[in-house]
Amino acid sequence: MSTSPQPNEQPTGLPAALPAALPAALPALPALPHDSIAELSHDFRLANSRLTRRLRQQRADDELTAGQFSALCSVYSSGPLTLSELSEHERVTPPSMNRTVNALVAAQLVKRENAADDGRKVILTASEAGGALVQETRERRDAWIAQRVMKLSPEQQQVLAEATLIMKELAEN
Predict the structure, then answer these.
(1) Full set of structural domains in the chain with CATH
(2) C-beta atoms surrounding 101 within 10 Å
(3) Which stretches does DSSP call E strand in 34-104?
(4) DSSP state letters, 106-124
């Protein structure tokens, strides 16, 4: 008994390995309106960019730039961090990150402290206000997307759950 997908079960435009990753409970998917992987990639990128922009609008503070908020989230989630560690994490140069951190310190969202073992080293931590801002933004974003997911059919929610796993895999590679 073969477990490989039958030719008529594979949606056109998808890599051969994808149908095997989908659970057997999913109904056969219709053919995608994409003629090529390049077209699918383009449409996926556009849809992902639009969704990201909409989610960014759900920030609890619209005074921060996207880069500042991203750095704050990194300090909150991964901190305490040095400026070099934060720069690496955010993939920006240390001078650029220093300007970002200066703005966050001025807004009292991040605290700078000298390291106990080396007075020249600066350690960054999120302030109480910074942590609260990150939490409130996460809650707003989760609520915004949850409202939209609840409007999907159970089948669409299942496809979204599978697509989320695939997106995580794409992001890790």
Answers:
(1) 53-153 (1.10.10.10)
(2) 24
(3) 81-82
(4) HTTSEEEEE-SS-TT-EEE
Side-chain-side CA neighbours of residue 84 (13 Å): 3
Close Cβ partners of 141 (under 8 Å, ≥ 6 residues apart): 55, 58
**CA-wise closest residue to 83 among 131, 122, 127:** 122
**How is the beta sheet containing 110-114 ordered, strand by strand?**
81-82, 122-126, 110-114
Q: How far apart are CA 59 and CA 87, in angstroms?
A: 22
Token pair belonging to 162: 């599978």
What is the residue-level pLDDT of the chain in tens, covering all 173 positions? 434 333 333 333 434 444 444 454 555 556 666 678 888 888 889 999 999 889 888 877 778 898 999 999 999 999 799 999 999 999 999 999 999 999 999 999 999 998 888 878 889 999 999 999 999 999 999 999 999 999 999 999 999 999 999 999 988 87
Q: 14: which residues sit within 8 A by CB, 6+ positions away?
A: 32, 40
Tell me how far apart the alpha carbons of residues 154 and 93 are, in angstroms, rounded to a whole number. 45
